[in-house]
Amino acid sequence: MTLLLRKFTLAAGLVLVLLSLPGVAAADSVSQDIVDARQERQIWTTYALSPYLRANNLVALVQSGRVRLTGTVAELAEKDLAEVIATEVTGIQDVDNQIMVQPGFVPAQQTTERSYGEAIDDAAVTLEVRSKLAWSKSLQGLHALIDTTRGRVRLRGVTNSQLAKSLAGWLAETTRGVAAVDNQLTVTGVPVFRPEDNSGQVINDAWITAKVRSTLLYSLSAAADISVSTIGGDVTLTGKAKSGAERALVIELAQTVRGVRSVNLQGYTF
């Protein structure tokens, strides 16, 4: 036996001895348990964020790259969606989809508290409403406190006119995901503009285009099909509206953005 061969033999023997030790085996087991738990958490979080799956109390049990899904849904498409989500998680090699499809299934309400997914949705709505108010040319200096619960938005703070209060309420109402608006803004008649509100903000055509586009995306499901461009503060919209009412809403929303001088609609028809 050569020296090299003896070294490999000794190394192999050492590995076998180490693997036979309880501590090493336990460490490997703990490591795999951590991976399994992380994958289960990732699947659960994605289910919780999905408006199609969050209420179904689906369970994902992961063991060494294999996941078993259980629970009940109302549609086959929901079962398939749950499987696709699990399959896409890094490290998952096989999905045993045991989710039952029961037409007309309505999940039982487990708690009066907001679910994780609902809380994330509400946070997104609050952010979008706050952004629309901040970008409005007629609401400069308005400092509104905004909170959202299950799509119900509450506005608090002070404003200098009834018109500004109404505009803030309308911008909130036209935000996607908003079910109702409780406008508690107080009209004082005193200007609330503060110079620091716009400190460091550069309003140019690129800024206007981005804010108009975002305002439309926050407000309309079809906004992704609308092209926005700006030259010298003059905004041009291109696309096709579903109705005259939708076209009118798009015009109003675009005109509210700070820096917009005019809105060209020749390329935006219905």
Please explain how this structure is put together.
There is one protein chain. By secondary structure, this protein is α/β, with parallel strands linked by helices. It has 3 domains: 26-101, Histidine-containing Protein, Chain: A, CATH 3.30.1340; 116-195, Histidine-containing Protein, Chain: A (2-Layer Sandwich); 202-269, Histidine-containing Protein, Chain: A, CATH 3.30.1340. Helix content is 44%, strand content 22%. It is built from 7 helices and 11 strands. A 3-stranded mixed sheet has the order 1-2-4. Helix 2 crosses helix 4 (116-135). The radius of gyration is 28 Å and the shape is elongated. 23% of the residues are buried.
Give a quick precis of the structure.
The chain is an alpha/beta fold. The chain contains seven helices and eleven strands. The chain folds into three domains: 26-101, 2-Layer Sandwich (Histidine-containing Protein, Chain: A); 116-195, Histidine-containing Protein, Chain: A, CATH 3.30.1340; 202-269, Histidine-containing Protein, Chain: A.
List the helices and strands and how they pair.
Layout: H1 3-20, H2 22-49, E1 59-63, E2 66-70, E3 72-73, H3 76-87, E4 94-97, E5 100-101, H4 116-135, E6 145-149, E7 152-159, H5 162-173, E8 180-187, H6 205-219, E9 227-231, E10 234-240, H7 244-256, E11 262-269
Parallel strand pairs: 2-4, 3-5, 7-8, 10-11
Antiparallel strand pairs: 1-2, 6-7, 9-10
Helix pairs in contact: 2-4
Keywords:
270 residues, alpha/beta, Histidine-containing Protein, Chain: A, three-stranded mixed sheet, 7 helices, elongated
